[in-house]
Specification:
The protein contains 11 helices and 11 strands. It is an alpha/beta fold.
């Protein structure tokens, strides 16, 4: 991948070099460490290339908003979005479709985590969060911002800025965990898959930070394909792409998400996410 191509996407350029007009390009929301994302999605690119018979490139972006912008500008034709970013992208490019989601994404959830100094413990009842400092993940994150904010405001009966002594946005789930573990924030909201994976790998000191509440299930991550790909890459391309994603069986590829498998998805599956985003004012 050329330096110019990479810089162009990261800066959300509108004009694409003609030399990559026929390559198929995808991105993913940066919900974890960038180097980890690059490793896992370049393997996915090679798999898709073998299945689709076209050049496939993965290009990283620096933020959730940049992923949506790249999709809007046709700099990428496919994206691994969260629930909210997928809704945003499809609203900007009518005719685009969610085509596959992880099996687990049908029943996704958020964890609230707390530093040991709070002396808060796990409970199925919603915790009293008044007066604590709190960090979300990215402002565009479904599991790290949208759904946590919804549950906080619904259960506490007031807006987040009336509840917490200080509110932050870490940028991604890994940083949220690190900040709460270090005590920079007392409580945070994270993607349960990232937490569980990091605990399994011994990357979290659970003597310093623990889960205190988990949310009800909601739909989250999905692959969304941009409108018009059949015109560019040939009739039936989007269906061929969907089949390739659903047939991704290699345990190494699936573990990099991590997901046990991919299942079909439709735009209708994400109507609850759109409704919540409208309710709390994250969509116009």
């Amino acid at each position: 991948m050329s330096f110019i191509k990479t810089v162009c996407l990261l800066l959300a350029c509108v004009v694409m070099p003609a030399s990559w007009a026929q390559s198929f390009t995808f991105t993913a929301i940066p919900d974890e460490n960038e180097s980890q994302l690059k490793t896992r999605f370049e393997k996915v690119a090679r798999y898709l290339e073998s299945e689709l018979g076209v050049e496939v490139n993965y290009i990283p972006v620096k933020s959730y908003a940049a992923a949506v912008t790249a999709f809007r500008n046709n700099q990428v034709q496919l994206a691994w979005f969260g629930g909210l970013s997928g809704v945003q992208a499809r609203r900007l490019v009518p005719g685009s479709n969610a085509i596959a989601q992880g099996f687990e994404d049908q029943y996704f959830k958020s964890y609230f985590i707390a530093h040991r100094s709070t002396e808060l413990n796990y409970s199925t009842n919603f915790p009293n969060l008044n007066g604590y400092s709190f960090t979300f993940g990215s402002k565009g994150s479904t599991s790290g911002r949208l759904m946590p904010q919804f549950y906080i405001e619904r259960n506490m009966g007031k807006k987040v800025d009336q509840i917490f002594s200080r509110v932050g946005f870490s940028g991604d789930h890994s940083r949220t965990i690190a900040q709460v573990e270090a005590g920079a924030y007392q409580i945070g909201a994270v993607n349960y898959k990232v937490w569980d994976s990091m605990v399994e790998k011994g990357q979290i000191d659970t003597d310093k930070v623990k889960v205190i509440w988990e949310s009800p299930a909601y739909p989250d991550y999905q692959w969304t394909v941009r409108a018009g790909v059949d015109n560019t890459y040939g009739a039936g391309f989007s269906e061929k792409l969907k089949t390739a994603l659903l047939n991704m069986k290699d345990p190494d590829l699936l573990a990099s998400f991590p997901r046990q498998s991919f299942v079909p998805a439709t735009n209708k599956d994400y109507e609850p996410i759109e409704s919540v985003a409208l309710t709390i004012g994250l969509l116009d």
